[in-house]
């Protein structure tokens, strides 16, 4: 595999969308991946507050079936909808995303939700609105939040996600 750093000016691309107190507009960069990598069949998106503790090739090789994205179902007392998923780790079928021109649809959905004041966790809200009931659920080992490790101790994490604000970060 290879790692490429591709600069994106998210304030320019998404300046009309909100940012959060502890998260810049860079959260929207995941929406550009299929456009930036049009020749890639699949791509893995990950937030920066993660620790890769096992081979992510397992994740890349997950079968998405006919779905465009794979994601880990959300968990926690405030996220009870089983069809809601975390946006901090995504497996994206870039080819299908581009075939269906979802870059444009993402922006339209974002603008609609923003105007309706429905963006509490903007990137997650937008993706969940677009892919509600239409994503491939991935095993929690691909985005295990450390505070839930004891609850899901049967799982051997591939990726630990230190989500949320505050000091609970790997650095």
Uncertain stretches of 5 or more adjacent residues: none
Q: Reading side by side through the largest sheet, how are the strands ordered? A: 1-4-3-5
β-strand amount: 15-25%
Rg over CA atoms: 16 Å
Helix count, DSSP H or I runs of 4 or more residues: 6
What structural class should be given to the helix and strand makeup? alpha+beta
For the report, how would you describe the main beta sheet?
A: 4 strands, mixed
Distance between the termini: 25 Å
Q: Helical percent range? A: 25-40%
Silhouette: globular
User: What's the SSE pattern?
Assistant: HHEEHEEHHHEE
Mean pLDDT: 85
Number of strands: 6
What labels describe this entry?
two-stranded antiparallel sheet; 171 residues; alpha+beta
Structural account:
- It is built from six helices and six strands, in the order ααββαββαααββ.
- It has helices at 10-14, 33-36, 57-60, 94-99, 102-115, 122-131; strands at residues 42-46, 50-52, 69-73, 85-93, 136-137, 159-161.
- Helix 5 (102-115) packs across helix 6 (122-131).
- It starts with 9 loop residues before the first helix and ends in a 10-residue tail after the last strand.
- The relative contact order is 0.20.
């Amino acid at each position: 595999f290879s790692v490429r750093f591709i600069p994106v000016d998210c304030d320019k691309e998404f300046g009309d969308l909100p940012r959060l107190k502890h998260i810049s507009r860079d959260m929207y960069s995941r929406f550009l991946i299929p456009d930036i990598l049009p020749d890639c069949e699949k791509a893995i998106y990950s937030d920066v507050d993660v620790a890769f503790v096992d081979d992510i090739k397992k994740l890349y090789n997950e079968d998405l079936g006919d779905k465009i994205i794979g994601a880990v179902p959300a968990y926690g007392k405030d996220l009870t909808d089983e069809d809601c998923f975390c946006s901090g780790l995504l497996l994206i079928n870039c080819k299908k995303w581009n075939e269906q021109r979802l870059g444009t649809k993402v922006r339209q959905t974002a603008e609609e939700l923003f105007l309706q004041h429905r963006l509490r966790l903007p990137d997650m809200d937008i993706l969940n609105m677009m892919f509600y009931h239409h994503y491939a659920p991935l095993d929690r080992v691909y985005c295990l939040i450390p505070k839930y490790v004891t609850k899901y101790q049967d799982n051997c994490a591939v990726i630990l996600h230190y989500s949320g604000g505050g000091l609970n970060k790997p650095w």
